[in-house]
Amino acid sequence: MLPLTQPMRKLEPWQDPNEKPYIQIENISKNYGAIQAVRGVSLSIYKGELFSLLGGSGCGKTTLLRMLAGFETPTAGKILIDGIDVTNWAPYKRPVNMMFQSYALFPHMTVYQNIAFGLKQEKLSKAQIHERVQWGLDLVQMLGFAHRKPHQLSGGQRQRVALVRSLVKQPKLLLLDEPLAALDKKLREQTQFELVNIQESVGITFVLVTHDQEEAMTMSTRMAVMEEGKIRQIGVPHDVYEFPSSRYVAEFIGTNNIIEGLVVEDEPDHVLIESLEAGCFVYATHAASMPIGSQVAIAIRPEKVMISATPPAGNRNCTKGIVREIAYLGDMSIYYVELESGKIIQSSLPNLLRLSERDVKWDDEVYLFWRAENGVVLAT
Prior knowledge:
The chain is α+β, with helices and mostly antiparallel strands. It folds into two domains: 13-247, Rossmann fold (3-Layer(aba) Sandwich); 255-379, CATH 2.40.50.140. The protein is built from eight helices and 20 strands. The strands form four sheets. A six-stranded mixed beta sheet has the order 6-7-8-3-9-10, sandwiched between helices. It is globular and about 75 Å long.
């Protein structure tokens, strides 16, 4: 009898060495006089991805997007789309469309006319234009809004019209510059999922620029974190969040407790760090090889830090302090605990019980502890 074999797990495009990137950015730089806005960025994006460029103001993400669109010319490097070098192509010659943060709808035109405008410029027939506009309106469930003007629409509806106007031109690549920034929080969260569903249904590659970490985490197949014109880390949202490659990424993505210490033991399966700041030894399994005596930082997410009024077993990955603040956020509470060194550590817990029913309250002495796999060691 032949042995049963497990089915092969399908690789993601970026994991498959035989898969060719759809967009290749090769050592791109952009200088404005003495200012380097983008510095030697290389990036591969695959067909059908929703890829996010994430970073703070001035990190170079929008400049990189504008070079993809053709609105800026690189100082050095090249850009390939579907294997074709488009570095010096004018924007209108590229198989690319861009959705701007302001949406840039024509106020004197109806929704239908706004969507049809680009198609008319391409000299499509009236029948083709009508078919594509109807398809787009149906896609975003706005068939009943065709004859309204932009000022008669809500922010979310204007955002959908701008998206459809970009999609009906059937670009190979759609660039989105902070597309949800003008929406309120609730509408923004709702629209995130709508955008993902639309992107999956049309199959067009999206590149999204955002400073909103939650937006990038929710929507992206992969994301690149940028700082000072460089990419600091690329990965799927889960890996970037759980395993930041640098202190900058650890501090930029979400909230992290950063503890300083010295490496006292370096083994293949763990690193042991003595932290005077935390008042304990930190045993961590997620770390590159570190020389004994190295100064390092340990990143621990607040949701990974457990809190108790009684001491846990063992003395590693365990410290104690005084509860100085409790932030009630509805679904969860964040405990701000001051250690003997003065360091503040955050521990977040779901609100399964009302605050008045909990064991831990303001000014209580508590123990904080975490598992070895939950601390990520970063070279400083």
